[in-house]
TrEMBL record:
<comment type="similarity">
    <text>Belongs to the PTPS family. QueD subfamily.</text>
</comment>
<feature type="active site" description="Charge relay system">
    <location>
        <position position="137"/>
    </location>
</feature>
<feature type="active site" description="Proton acceptor">
    <location>
        <position position="26"/>
    </location>
</feature>
<dbReference type="GO" id="GO:0046872">
    <property type="term" value="F:metal ion binding"/>
</dbReference>
<protein>
    <recommendedName>
        <fullName>6-carboxy-5,6,7,8-tetrahydropterin synthase</fullName>
        <ecNumber>4.1.2.50</ecNumber>
    </recommendedName>
</protein>
<feature type="binding site">
    <location>
        <position position="30"/>
    </location>
    <ligand>
        <name>Zn(2+)</name>
    </ligand>
</feature>
<feature type="binding site">
    <location>
        <position position="17"/>
    </location>
    <ligand>
        <name>Zn(2+)</name>
    </ligand>
</feature>
<dbReference type="GO" id="GO:0070497">
    <property type="term" value="F:6-carboxytetrahydropterin synthase activity"/>
</dbReference>
<feature type="active site" description="Charge relay system">
    <location>
        <position position="76"/>
    </location>
</feature>
<keyword id="KW-0456">Lyase</keyword>
<comment type="pathway">
    <text>Purine metabolism; 7-cyano-7-deazaguanine biosynthesis.</text>
</comment>
<keyword id="KW-0862">Zinc</keyword>
<dbReference type="InterPro" id="IPR038418">
    <property type="entry name" value="6-PTP_synth/QueD_sf"/>
</dbReference>
<feature type="binding site">
    <location>
        <position position="32"/>
    </location>
    <ligand>
        <name>Zn(2+)</name>
    </ligand>
</feature>
<dbReference type="Pfam" id="PF01242">
    <property type="entry name" value="PTPS"/>
</dbReference>
<dbReference type="InterPro" id="IPR007115">
    <property type="entry name" value="6-PTP_synth/QueD"/>
</dbReference>
<keyword id="KW-0479">Metal-binding</keyword>
């Protein structure tokens, strides 16, 4: 029997975006109160001299990684796909002092969660693996990423 445990921490942030070329209302600049659940998997530390004894990862350490990589970057920013004419709108907003984020993908929940998975994974300690992410854009709509879907 293994001793793998999944640990989840939840985050929230406010982000604006627009989907260039989309055929619905979301082609207009709008925002969401995103909720992000980050689940990592690993074995609790068995060394009783370690200050993190009994933990898979300190929730505070996980929080620091996700805040630095995702929340502090995306919160109260407006995200645009830089490979579209939205780059002109982004420049105008930046010139007026707005917090704009240019990404090289269409900023859907699906593509954001892929981006987040890469960024969080590379910051985790060696003995911890990113298990899954859930990005909720509304109460009833979310995108999920699972490690075992991407092996």
């Amino acid at each position: 029997m293994g001793n793998n445990i999944r640990i989840t921490k939840q985050f929230s942030f406010e982000t604006g975006h627009a989907l260039y070329g989309y055929d619905g209302k979301c082609k207009n600049v709008h925002g969401h109160s995103y909720k992000l659940s980050v689940t990592v998997i690993g074995k609790p530390i068995t060394d009783n001299t370690n200050v993190k004894f009994g933990m898979v990862i300190d929730f505070g350490d996980l929080k620091k990684i996700v805040k630095e990589e995702i929340v502090n970057v995306f919160d109260h920013a407006t995200v645009f796909n830089k490979n579209t004419p939205h780059v002109e709108l982004a420049k105008e907003l930046q010139d007026r002092g707005h917090n704009v984020l240019l990404v090289d993908y269409q900023p859907t929940s699906e593509m954001m969660v892929l981006d987040f998975a890469k960024k969080i994974s590379k910051r985790l300690p060696d003995h911890i693996k990113l298990h899954s992410l859930k990005l909720q854009e509304t109460d009833s709509s979310f995108a999920e990423w699972f490690d075992y879907d991407n092996i």
